Amino acid sequence: MHDFRYHRPSSVDEAVKLLAGKSDARVMAGGMTLIPTLKQRLAKLTDVIDLAAIKELKGIKVEGKAVTIGAMTPHHEVASSIAVKKAIPALAALAAGIGDPHVRHRGTIGGAVANNDPTADYTAAVLALNATVKTNKRSIAADSFFKGLFETALGEGELITAVSFPVVDKAAYMKFANPASRYAIVGVFVAKSGASVRTAVTGAASCVFRCAPIETALAKSFAPEAIASVMIDGKDFNSDIHASAEYRAHLVRVMAQRAVAAAA
Amino acid sequence: MADTGIGASVRRKEDQRFITGRGHYTDDLNRPGQAYAFFVRSPHAHARIKSVNTAAAARSPGVIGVFTGQDVAADKLGSIPCGWGVTQKDGKPMNAPPHMPLAADKARYVGDQVALVVAETYNQARDAAEKVVVDYEVLPASVDLAATAKKGAPVIHDQAPNNVCFVWGLGDEAATKAAFAKAHHVAKLNLVNNRVIPNAIEPRAAIGDFDTGDDSYTLYVTSQNPHLARLVISAFVQIAPESKLRVVAPDVGGGFGSKIFIYAEECVVTWASRKVGRPVKWTAERFESFLSDAHGRDHLTHVELALDKDGKFLGLRVDTTANMGAYLSNFASAIPTYLYGTLLQGVYTTAAIYCEVTSVFTNTVPVDAVRGAGRPEATYLIERIVDVAASDMGIDRAEIRRRNFIAAIAFPYQTQVALQYDSGNYGASLEKALTMIDYAGFEKRRKEAAGRGKLRGIGLASYIEACGIAPSQVVGSLGAGVGLYEAGQVRFDATGNVTVFTGSHTHGQSHETTFAQIVSDYLGVPFEKIEVVHGDSGRIPFGMGTYGSRSLAVGGSAIVRAMDKVIAKGRRIAAHLLEASEADIEFKAGKFSVKGTDRAKTIGEIAFAAYVPHNYPLSELEPGLDETAFYDPANFTFPAGTHVCEVEIDRDTGVVAVERWVAVDDFGRIINPMVVAGQVQGGVAHGVGQALCEAAVYDKSGQLLTGSYMDYCMPRAGDLPSIEVDTTVTLCTHNPLGVKGCGETGAIAAPATLINAIVDALAPLGVKHIEMPATSQRVWQAIHSAS
Fold it and tell me: 20 to 30 Å CA-CA from B220: which of B309, B417, B447, B631?
C-alpha cells in the first residue's frame, strides 16, 4: 500500500476534527473493505483515522423496545449477545453469518452500514427492521439512509455513532451466499411488526431495497405460500458470472419464502 | 519394524516444523544486502510495446535498477523453452514460438512480464513500478478457445499461423472408422473441461543471489524440481553454466504442478542479481499468482463411443481443442497429447480408438500441468460418455463397466493408444466401492430424498492413470527433451545414522516421513536415525523432481537401488570382519550374519568399520558407506480404481450438496496409509473444486474476471463430506517396491464421479449433461429449462 498518516483518536469529536479539510482522508472502522483496497493500491490516502479507540462507539444496549448497537461493535459481539438473541434473534443470526470468524471479530456494524456495499448483510437488517441510523449530527430513518451503490445519506464529517433497531414480532434473514466470496448473491430480511411487514433485499441490485410485491402479499398472509407466485421484476438486477438477473430474481422469492418460514 | 516401516501410519516428521511455524519457505529466507523486485505487467491481453520509459522509475526513491525486454535482449538471454516437441499429424514439428523472460515486442496476456524494478524495499519497488511508462498499441485479443484458430482471429505469434501450435493424432483412424460403421449404437457428447487455476497456498517466490567472489549464482525458488530449473536457466535461458548455478527449493507450500515450470520471474531475478550486484527477492502477491501461475485443463471435446447391441465398446473417437495460452509453458505440449490421448483406453477393452488434438494459442495465461495433467481430462470424457451410453441403451451404469473392463487375468495389457498396463483388477475396486456405498439400495434413498423435495443422484467413475513418469527412452522417442529417471543417495555416517539424498521434492507429499520408512524397513535402521534431504542442487545428485505422482515409484525406487548397493558393500565388509565367505553372509533386519551361525555384525558396526577402516579389506574395497543410484523406470505405473458419490440437489436454488464419497483405489503397495488417505482426500477436494465451483473466466478483451478469491471459488471443508477411503492391491510388476502412486488420482476421478452423480440426480427431469463447474446457477438453469 501507499504510505499514509495513521491517526487513532479517542473521541468522535477528535475524529471529526482530524477529518476536516482533508480531501484524501478516510475514517476506518473495522477496515474490512478499506485495508484490502489500500493493499491493492486501489486508493491512495493521505490520512487514515482509525476509530478503534473510541469507547463511546462500542457496545450493545437493549432498552424498552429497541436494540441499540454502537457503530464500532464487531459482528461477533452482536452474534453472541444474549440480549440481542433474545430481543431480535434474526439480527444475531445475520451477524453470525457475515464473512468468516476473522471478519466477524474485526468488522463493525457502523463500517458495514456506512460502506453500503450492495452485497452487505447488515444493510438488509437496517432497512427491514426500520432501524434508525444515529450519527454525530442527527438520526436518520432507514428509508432515507441508503441512496445507491456505496452511497448513503451521510454528509461530510458525519459519522455513524450507533444503529437502533426496534424490536419486532417476527423476523428472519436468509442469505444465498456467493460460494467464492460468501457475500450475498441475494439476501432477504423479512420483519413483521403488528400488521406491518417490511422486506429488504440485498445483493440483487445496486443497493439494498424494499420489495413491495412481497410486503403486500405478506401483509395479507404471513406465510411462505402467500408469495409463491409473486413475480419479482429483475430487470435492474445485477448480472455477473455467478448469477444472472433472472436467477437473482428467482432467488429473491425463494429466500423470502424461506425467511418467512424461519421467522421467529 | 512394523511401527515405523513399510505399511505403518507413521506420524509426519514434517509436521513439527510446519505446525509450529518453523518451516523455511523461500519468502522466509533473507540474504545479506537483499533488494526487492516488483514486475511491471501488461494490463492488456494483446498489445505492441512501442516503448518503455524507465526514467521516472529509475529516479524514484530507493530504486537500484529498472530492466526491460531490451536489456534482456542486449544480454542475449535465451527463450524459456517448451521441453516437449510434439510431432504433428502431417509429420511437421509443432509451432513453438519463443518466450522471452521479459516481453520486448508484444505483450500477449494480461500479466505478461514487461519490466522489472529493483529497489531497497518492496514498497519502493512497487511505487517505482507505477512510474514505468509503457507505450502500448493495444491490439485485438484472441481469447475464445473455440474461435482462436478460425480465419480472422488476431494472430498472437508470427511463428504460429492461425494460432495453431499443433494438430496431433493418436490411434488407428481407419480401424476406428470401421468400428463405428458396424456399431449398434453411437453415444455422442460435447463437453468442456474447464480452465482451473492451481492456487498453491504459498505463492511463488524467488531470490537471485550472485556471488561476485566466484562468479556463481544461487537461486532460492519455489520449485518442484530444482535441477530442472538449473538445467533450463543454464542451457536455455543461458544465464550461467550449470556448475555456476545452485538452485535451492526449500520448504514449498504446495505445487499441484504449477511449480514444475521455470517461469520468467525466477530467470529474471537471477539475472538481475548480477546486474545490481545484490541479492534480489521477488514474492508474488496473490493477484500475481492468478495472473501468472500456469493454468490447467481448458479443453473443448467432442467424443463418440460406438457400442454393439450388448453394450460392448467397439470404438472411441475423440476430437479435442486444447488451450496453450499465450506462450508454450515447459511441458504444455505434452499434457493434451502424451498424458491425455494415451489414457483413452481407460480401464476398458475398447477395440479401436482414435484421438485428434488441435492445440492453440490464446491471449491468456499459459496453460500447463495441474494435478493430474491430461489424465483428468481423459477420465472425464471416458466416464461421461460411458454414462451417456448406459443411459441411451438402458443398461445399468455399473453393469456396462463390468461388461467392458479389462479382465484381471489379461495383464500385461497392450492398449490401442501406446501404453502397456502391467497390472490391475478393475472389477475388484468397483465391487468394493459399490458395496461400501450400498449401490443396490440407492433407489430407496432417492425416493426418501424426493419426499424431502430433494433430487438425489449417485455417480461413479472407474479411472486409470499413468504415472511413475517415466521411461526415458520411451518419452525421448515421443519428443521429451529430458530423461525422467530419478536419483537417490544413501549415506551412512560413522555412528550409524543415515542421510538420504533424493532428487524428488516434497511440497506436501511427506517424503521426509515415507522415504525414511522405506529406508528403516530395508536397512533395519531406527526411523529416528534417518534424515531425508531434498531440494538443493548443491547437496543432492542430479534429480528430476516431483510431478506426475512419480516420487515413490521412481524416486523411492532409486533409493532402494542405492540401498541394494549399500547392502552389497556391507556384505563384503561383513565377510571380512566375520572371516566368512561373502556368499555365506545374509542380511536381515539390520544385521549381517553368517548363515547357520549366531555370528553377526549390525549395519551400524559395518558403517563404523567403513569409516574407521582399521580392520578392513582396503586392498579390494574403498572405505566409506555412501552409495548413489539412478533409477530409470521400465514402464509407467497405472493406479486405477472406482470412486462413487451421492449428491442431493436443492430444486429451488440448484445448490448441489455432496452427501457421500467412497474412494477405492489400487496404488500397489502402500508405504503409509495415513499419508495416502490424505493424498486421496486432497485430490478429491481438488476434483470436487473443478466439478462444482472452480473456473478461470476471461472476458472478451482478455481480462481475467476471476482474478481473486472474491470470484474464483475454491472448495472449502464444509463443501465436502467425510471421504471414505479404501484400497485394493495389485502390485506394480516392474519397480522394486511394487508401488504405483497416489497424488493425483483424487483429482482425476472426482470430476467425472461428481458430474455423473449430478446428471443422475437431474435425469428424471430429462437432463443428459451438465458442464463443469456445476454451479448452483447452472444446475438451476438445467432444472428451470427442463420443467
Answer: B631
Cell numbers for B206: 524467488
Q: Does B615 touch chain A (CB under 8 A)?
A: no
- Residues B571 and B581: their CA atoms lie apart, in Å, by 10
Backbone angles phi, psi at B754, to 5 degrees: -70, -45
| Residues B713, A241: C-beta atoms closer than 8 Å | no
User: Quick check: B775 contacting A, CB < 8 Å?
Assistant: yes
| Cross-chain residue pair A241–B706, CB shorter than 8 Å | yes
Q: What is the pLDDT of residue B727?
A: 98
Contact B787, B770 (CB under 8 A): no
Cis omega (within 30 of 0) for bond into B639 = no
- Coil, helix or strand at residue A227: helix
Domain B31-139+201-254+259-292 - what CATH class? alpha beta
Cross-chain Cβ contact B709/A242 below 8 Å: no
Is it true that domain A55-166 has CATH number 3.30.465.10? yes
Domains B31-139+201-254+259-292 and B485-631 agree in fold:
no
What is the average pLDDT across B27-47? 98
Chain A residues 13-52 within an 8 A CB cutoff of chain B? 40-41
The answer to whether the CB atoms of A247 and B693 lie below 8 A apart is: no
Cα(B785)–Cα(B649) distance, integer angstroms: 16
**Contact partners, residue A98, CB within 8 Å, separation at least 6:** A75, A104, A107, A112, A121, A122
Asked if B693's CB is within 8 angstroms of A180's CB, the reply is yes
Which chain A residue's Cα is nearest to B128?
A2
Whether B122 and chain A come into contact, CB under 8 Å, resolves to no
Q: Do B780 and A241 touch (CB under 8 A)?
A: no
On whether the B299-469+635-786 domain is CATH 3.30.420.300, my answer is no
User: Quick one: three-class SS letters along B581-608?
Assistant: CHHHEEEECCEEEECCCCCEEEHHHHHH
Look at A180 and B705 and tell me if their CB atoms are within 8 Å. Answer: no
Give the rounded distance of the alpha carbon of A69 from its chain centre: 12
Sheet holding B626-631, edge to edge: B530-534, B498-502, B486-492, B626-631
Q: Does B714 touch chain A (CB under 8 A)?
A: yes
CB contact under 8 A, B777 and A250: no
Q: What is the mean pLDDT of residues B610-619?
A: 97
How many Å apart are CA B762 and CA B781, to the nearest integer? 11
Fold of A170-262: Enolase-like; domain 1 (3.30.390)
Q: Which CATH number is associated with domain A5-50?
A: 3.30.43.10
10-residue stretch averages of pLDDT, chain A, 264 residues long:
95 96 95 95 96 97 96 98 98 97 97 98 98 98 98 97 98 97 97 97 98 97 96 95 97 98 94
Amino acid B696: pLDDT: 98
Say which CATH topology domain B485-631 has.
Aldehyde Oxidoreductase; domain 4 (3.30.365)
Cβ of B718 under 8 Å from any chain A Cβ?
A: no
Question: Is the distance from CB of B631 to CB of B554 less than 8 angstroms?
Answer: yes
pLDDT at position B786 = 86
CB contacts of B123 in chain A (<8 Å) are 1, 3
Query: Which of B761-770's residues contact partners 24+ apart within 8 Å by CB, and which partners?
Result: B761/B455, B761/B456, B761/B457, B761/B647, B761/B648, B761/B649, B762/B455, B762/B457, B762/B649, B762/B786, B763/B391, B763/B457, B764/B455, B765/B455, B768/B388, B768/B391, B769/B189, B769/B191, B769/B384, B769/B388
Would you kindly state where each structural domain of chain B is located, as residue ranges? 31-139+201-254+259-292, 299-469+635-786, 485-631
Dist CA A218 CA B176 (whole Å):
63
Helices (H) and strands (E) in chain A, counts: 11, 14
Tell me which chain A residues have a C-beta less than 8 angstroms from the C-beta of B775: 179, 242
Q: Is residue A95 within a helix (H) or strand (E), and if so which, with residue range?
A: helix A89-96
